[in-house]
Amino acid sequence: MKLPLFCTKLLIRTRIARYLPSFRRSSHGASDYLHYFADRVLSAPLDAMLDEGAFPDIQTPDTIHLAMSSPRFDSLTAGIVRSVVMPRQSVPPQGMTELRMEIAHQHAHAHQVSVDAADEVLITHGATGAFGTILDTFVNPGTNVCVFDPTSPMFTIGLKSRRARILTVPTWMEEGRTRFHLGPFVKAMKGAKLLVLADPSNPTGGCLAPEDLEQIAWWARHYDVLIYLDESLSRFRYDEQSNHLPKLPDASNRVIVGNSISKGHGLSSLRVGWLVGHRHLIRACSVTSALTNPFVPIPCQQMALAAMRTVNDEAFDTLRQGFASRRRYVYERLTSMGLQPAWPSGGFFFWVPVSPLGKTGREFAQSLLEEKRVLVGPGDVFGASGSKFIRISYAIEEGRLREGLSRIGEYVNELRRVPEMPRQPELVEAA
43, 151, 283, 397: which is deepest, by most CB within 10 A? Predict the structure, then answer.
């Protein structure tokens, strides 16, 4: 169990920490340097940040990467780098005017709301930078933050590093939808300052139903809770057009939408993201961003602008149809193995229970990588409820996807063929 910060600092100040195995292990040998570190570093969940299950770095050519978090669209983005022309004038800290205008236009079109590019759009260092700006602007140590479970590890890592009090709401998948019971949700919202959502969800690919969005908006207004809505996967919706939360009257002035160029445009290396919301909220975020992490590189912003103009809705429709076909193909392959993946209505993931095979998600992922050289995501990195699941991404070239699924099928068959050890008869003592 993680110690309270004041206990950690006391052990460091008295130099007792250097003799404790738990400190040596969690600090990776840096016990003698802990007294230099700020509270933000001491509060960070280092084990989660260094977990290879959450941030894999597998480079061997024979490994098939089915844990990818972002796709690539080389056919559409190959010429974007040639669009970079260095501007003659300086760019404001909140981002290029042209890029903010394009984001405002596309956001307004998607949600049927009006957006002022000058005051209601902020360019950030990717979606992670967008969320970090939200935390630095609105979250203090001890702030109650409501999060659905399972969820992206970046949400929980960021919240833990700010010493927020995380209130989780259990969810499940039902016909492609992310569902939750109203009672636990209302209990978590009472006293919360911020609600963190992702729609579609990572890792499940579930989308929130319209009636659930209306409940979320109503209770957020009732308890005066801000909403951070991550729409990184918004272009990967197969069964509906858009999330209508930003235009609901109960949520319109309290929703801040985060997004990036990474997933929807296949350019994760640019690290360009943004926030869109009410001007008073975005202005506060602009102050925080300018103080901590300003000035996204201009060439990256220019390439992001070119990508948003090139990979438009018409061009993306063909890609989305291809992903939808791939979704059906992967689902049929997994079910033919006897697995029971949740059917997603968005994203490019499958959330697959593996407990019927006698393994946790972590054990399954590690053994699969060691024996078959296939990398999948262990579910426990997405929250406590994911311990019996794995996440499989199909954002990969189709030939390698087919081969990866074949190897998974072989591994599953081998697990089922392992004979059970005969139970030893119990010893009965003589009377």
Answer: 151
